[in-house]
Amino acid sequence: MKTQEIMARLQAKYPLEKEYLQAVQEVLESIEEVYNQHPEFEKAKIVERIVEPDRIFTFRVTWIDDNGDVQTNLGYRVQFNSAIGPYKGGLRFHKAVTPSMLKFLGFEQTFKNALTTLPMGGAKGGSDFSPRGKSNAEVMRFCQAFMLELTRHIGPELDVPAGDIGVGGREVGFMFGMYKKLTRDFSGTFTGKGREFGGSLIRPEATGYGNIYFLKEMLKTRGMDLKGKKVLISGSGNVAQYATEKCIQLGAIPLTLSDSDGYIYDPDGITQEKLEYVKELKNVERGRIKEYAEEYPNAVYHAGERPWHEKADIALPCATQNEINGEQAQALVDNGVIAVAEGANMPSLPEAIKIFQDNKLLYAPGKASNAGGVSVSGLEMSQNSERLSWTSKEVDDYLKRIMSDIHENCVKYGTQADGYINYVKGANVAGFMKVANAMMAQGIV
Ligand code: NDP
Fold first, then answer.
1. Model confidence over 278-305: pLDDT tens digits?
2. What is the pLDDT of residues 402-423, one digit of tens each?
3. 373 lines ligand 1 (CB under 6 A)
4. Among 172, 259, 323, 399, which residue has the most ligand 1 atoms within 8 Å of its CB, making it the best to mutate?
5. Residue 16 — φ and ψ, nearest 5°?
6. How far apart are the CA of 92 and the centre of ligand 1, in A?
7. 3-state DSSP call for residue 356?
8. Rounded distance, CA 91 to CA 375, Å?
9. What is the widest separation between alpha-carbon atoms in the chain?
10. pTM for this one?
């Protein structure tokens, strides 16, 4: 494989798809060596096939807002790869959603799902609709209009969506309701459902908790734990909230949270009680993180900034893609950060990853460290199939085991001659080998 040649071809074909090209380049660079040891992959053109989605659906979503005005958005589903199982991946509702963003997320999801050890292919979808500032009734009407079209492309053995940015329990509930109405079929076609109708315990917590379980494993390789460690966290949504919660439970001290308008720094640390305030603020009142500083006057709100210049031991980017650039990565290193575990997907720019790795930080890419969410989604599918609900402890134990297995795989494929664990390489190679072997076995399809 010649990574540069393949990238040049993709760049010419998709010149505007920045995030997709960035994600593909990272994977190809790290699998090149292993790939070249398998001439049969080259002959079957595995790379040329694996970088293209199986199919992409694009559709118009028309709905009526509270003023009676007609609104039009675009909806998408990228079914990326089904070599190892039905398509599986979240839906993102955010005004900045583009096909490039969803292609990058679907591509990453393919490898992440392979890492979980569960049989799930990769997909992603969403819309340029943003729930922010919309009433509940508007969100419901949008979700229903979205499902009028998406329903025909999904199913329990075909494609099982879940949440992502802008899609939480409320949105999944509305979409599942419409799916059921249209198909007259009560199946496990969505994950992240409410507990009363087939949702798994620990699914809301899974991505954030899983990220911290992975971080714990990384710290263990250097004989360290989380106790007393100061932690910078970005975002204040689902992943950030539960990463914060698990940090608190394990004795770490979370100092920051953010949203797209700015971040708060709490020098006293974010406690469970303060976190409960954040959950209410974000999930129920749908407020902004700056209100935290009004509630807790010792905290400082920094408008328009990200938290990466604060001093701490650990950084957990849990908001969105490309939220740490080279200068911010250098600030983290200069301030003594020892570990970065990504709760978000692709939050670090390539230049930031290079800085983390050159400085031998413990650095986990999202496809490894945030795989807990989709793992418990996989467990939700199992529970739905057997018409049973597992206890919180059963699911949490499973989650811990999966995160530890993913870590072990990263160590197996990513340990360098000098002993440094390159988690990017480890995750990419482990995920790639599984998908590639399945594609080989299934012939040219
Ligand atoms: P939420 O919508 O619950 O929260 C997203 C948070 O990130 C909000 O605080 C939001 O602020 C902030 N944010 C969104 N866009 C930006 C931006 N452009 N700049 C700065 N902040 C931003 O989403 P999740 O917590 O579910 O997802 C967060 C990340 O984790 C995403 O990258 C997602 O793909 C990834 N992920 C999520 C999983 C899950 O199970 N939910 C599973 C695996 C990965 P605001 O309120 O201002 O929009």
1. 999 999 999 999 999 999 999 999 999 9
2. 999 999 999 999 999 999 999 9
3. yes
4. 259
5. -100, 0
6. 9
7. helix
8. 16
9. 65
10. 0.97
Residue 1 pLDDT > 80: no
370 C-beta closer than 6 A to ligand 1: yes
Structure token pair of residue 143: 């979700």
Cα 165 to middle of ligand 1, angstroms: 4
pLDDT, average across residues 244-255:
98
Q: Which of 124, 282, 367, 434 is catalytic?
A: 124
Q: Is the CB of residue 380 less than 8 Å from the CB of residue 188?
A: yes
For residue 348 and ligand 1, the question of a CB distance below 6 A is answered with no
* Residue appearing with tokens 């908001």: 319
Percent of the chain at pLDDT exceeding 70: 100
pLDDT at site 207: 98
Q: How far apart, in whole angstroms, are the C-alpha atoms of residue 280 and residue 418?
A: 47
**Using N-to-C axis directions, what is the helix angle for 18-35 and 350-358, rounded to 10°?**
40
pLDDT for 383: 98
Task: Give the chain's mean pLDDT.
Answer: 97
Q: Which atom of ligand 1 is nearest to the CA of 105?
A: 34
Percent of the chain with pLDDT over 90: 99
Length of the chain: 445
**Closest ligand 1 atom to 377 CA:** 40
257 lines ligand 1 (CB under 6 A): no
324 alpha carbon to ligand 1 midpoint, in Å?
A: 14
CB-ligand 1 contact for 342 (6 Å cutoff): no
Note if 124 is an active site residue.
yes
Would you list the DSSP string of 68-127?
S-EEEEEEEEEEEE-SSSSEEEEEEE-TT--HHHHHHHHHHHHHHHHHTTS---EEEEEE
